[in-house]
Amino acid sequence: MKGRPFDDRLSKEMQETKNKRYTEGPYEKYLKLGARQLSDAELLAVILRTGTVGEDTVSIANKVLSLPGERQKGILGLHHVSLKELMSVRGIGQVKAIKLKCIAELSSRIAQQTAKKTLQMTDPATVADYYMERLRHSEREKVILLMTDNRNHLIAEHILSEGTVNASLISPREIFLTALRLGAVYIMLLHNHPAGDPTPGRQDIAATEKIKKAAELIEIPLIDHIIIGDKKYFSFREMGYL
To answer: What's the predicted TM-score (pTM) here?
Structure first.
């Protein structure tokens, strides 16, 4: 009986050492192997920093990654979960939830800035790459007007609508008032399909034809309409519609 306090203390210290070693695993792995060798859960564990009673950061990170379900597997699923969903995970409070959402947004901005270096408005592939990370994770359709100068350099962009893409929702008046005000020489339409398939529907084709005819009258040509899907795009110009 006399040896029990020492045994209890030793057992407690051993357990704390074990827990500490497991919690610090992602940090140690990073120092030895670099960030590329860390799993998605381990990367998130580094961001989360601390776990909760009875649960380490890697375990919490795995639960975070499982939140989106079939919507988007892996770390990209952070774009599709809300703060409330994140905070439903034990060990994730508001501060950590906000941090995770900011990490997702930061990753999109880094990808977009990387794509900007090769952006050429006359090359649909580079335009799609530039807008891909911003739009492919959106759960609502967004229509964007892109305006260029006489050298096809991007002057500005303007959001025309959010929601269902419908010919009646895209106003030629708004498009050309904006284009004239900013001195655009050419215009381009761009929108996303949240389901991931960029194939145009009847409404997409009708809206494009409507704007094309108006553009010919105003003499500010519509040079393309690009639809963004999940890592895929559709260019009306490339497919011979324009």
So the answer is: 0.64
Q: Which residues of 152-188 are buried (b: 16+ CB within 10 A; e: fewer)?
A: eebbeebebbeeebebeebebeebbebbeeeebbbbb
Task: Catalogue all structural domains in the chain, each as residue range(s) with its CATH number.
Answer: 4-111 (no CATH), 119-235 (3.40.140.10)
Tens digits of pLDDT across the chain (242 residues): 455 554 555 455 545 545 444 445 888 888 888 888 888 888 888 888 887 877 888 888 889 888 876 656 677 788 878 899 999 999 999 999 999 989 888 887 887 777 677 778 889 999 998 888 788 778 788 999 999 999 888 889 999 888 755 544 578 889 999 999 999 999 999 999 988 899 999 888 988 999 999 999 999 999 999 999 988 999 999 999 88
Gap between the Cα atoms of 85 and 33, Å rounded = 32
